[in-house]
Amino acid sequence: MSDTGKAANLLSQIPKAEKKGLPPVHLWNPPFCGDLDMRIARDGSWIYQGTPIGRPAMVRLFSSVIRRDGDDYFLVTPVEKVGIKVDDAPFVAIELMAEGSGEGQVLRFVTNVGDETEAGAEHPIRVELDPNTQEPAPYVHVRANLEALIHRNVFYQLVELAVPREIDGVAWLGVWSHGQFFQIGRPE
């Protein structure tokens, strides 16, 4: 079957969403049906056969059935599973809302596909440093083994909210959310 046929077939199998919530892709174990020529770029854009998918509703639909198994990403329906490529993370956190202050602060992120996540024990924030450039790459856990790359502008907002804290004798800057402290960098 051609990639176009695979994509159309996959779309037809995605269950219509109930009032709210995502399909239980973690419970589905369909057979692997091959790879699809689909890629999620680092900026969060979805590309099918070399062309960006311009319909936000279609991107949202596909994003509702993405699953990560190990280092591989798949679109999963109850009857089939197809592989896709993800350059970095499948989502990008494009908005941040902060409520409260100190240890009682709550940080809520909104992704490019409309998912909302509150950072906390179940949804940690982590920052990786590029070994060559030392540039930070911040992430927040969104759902079931899936993360969002925190957009640069949103990371700057986090930095503005950062407070100093010593951990094991080492000074860190970080943010609080739901009583959890997340290290985002070292003070200069």
From TrEMBL:
<dbReference type="InterPro" id="IPR010707">
    <property type="entry name" value="DUF1285"/>
</dbReference>
<dbReference type="Pfam" id="PF06938">
    <property type="entry name" value="DUF1285_N"/>
</dbReference>
<dbReference type="InterPro" id="IPR048341">
    <property type="entry name" value="DUF1285_N"/>
</dbReference>
<dbReference type="Pfam" id="PF21028">
    <property type="entry name" value="DUF1285_C"/>
</dbReference>
<dbReference type="InterPro" id="IPR023361">
    <property type="entry name" value="DUF1285_beta_roll_sf"/>
</dbReference>
<feature type="domain" description="DUF1285">
    <location>
        <begin position="23"/>
        <end position="89"/>
    </location>
</feature>
<protein>
    <recommendedName>
        <fullName>DUF1285 domain-containing protein</fullName>
    </recommendedName>
</protein>
<dbReference type="InterPro" id="IPR048342">
    <property type="entry name" value="DUF1285_C"/>
</dbReference>
<feature type="domain" description="DUF1285">
    <location>
        <begin position="90"/>
        <end position="184"/>
    </location>
</feature>
